[in-house]
Design goal:
The chain is of the alpha/beta class and about 100 residues long. It has three helices and six strands. A six-stranded mixed beta sheet has the order 3-4-2-1-5-6, sandwiched between helices. The chain is globular and about 35 Å long. The termini are far apart.
C-alpha cells in the first residue's frame, strides 16, 4: 500500500506525531520512506521508529518538497506555514493540528 510513497510527519515528537509514527511502524512502513520532522532546534533530536533510534530532521520547505503524503501533527501555526510551502504535485496533507479548519 505504501510501497512507493514518500511520507513525512511534522511535529514528530508531539503526541499526535508519536501516534502516527507508531501506526506507520506497526503497518510495516520502513523508516527509509518516512521523514520525521520538528521545528528548528539548536540541539539534535534523537528518537525512535519501529524500535530503532532515528534522528528527527528540521522542518523546512525542502524537507516536504518531495513528499507524497504529509501528516501535519505540529502546532496549528506551524501547519499553516507548511500548507503555504511549495509541494509535490498531487501531494496529500493530513492536518491533525486543526490549522485547515
Amino acid at each position: 500500500m505504501f510501497a512507493d510513497l514518500k511520507l513525512a510527519v511534522t511535529g514528530a515528537i508531539g503526541a499526535s506525531g508519536q501516534t502516527i509514527r507508531a501506526l506507520l511502524a506497526a503497518g510495516g512502513v520502513p523508516i527509509e520512506q518516512v521523514r520525521l520532522l520538528e521545528q528548528v532546534s539548536e540541539e539534535a533530536i534523537i528518537s525512535e521508529y519501529a524500535g530503532h533510534p532515528t534522528l528527527i530532521g528540521t522542518l523546512d520547505p525542502e524537507a516536504l518538497a518531495d513528499r507524497d503524503l504529509v501528516f501535519l501533527c505540529g502546532t496549528p501555526e506551524e501547519s499553516k506555514r507548511c500548507l503555504l510551502w511549495e509541494h509535490k504535485r498531487g501531494a496529500l496533507h493530513v492536518d491533525l493540528s486543526g490549522a485547515a479548519v
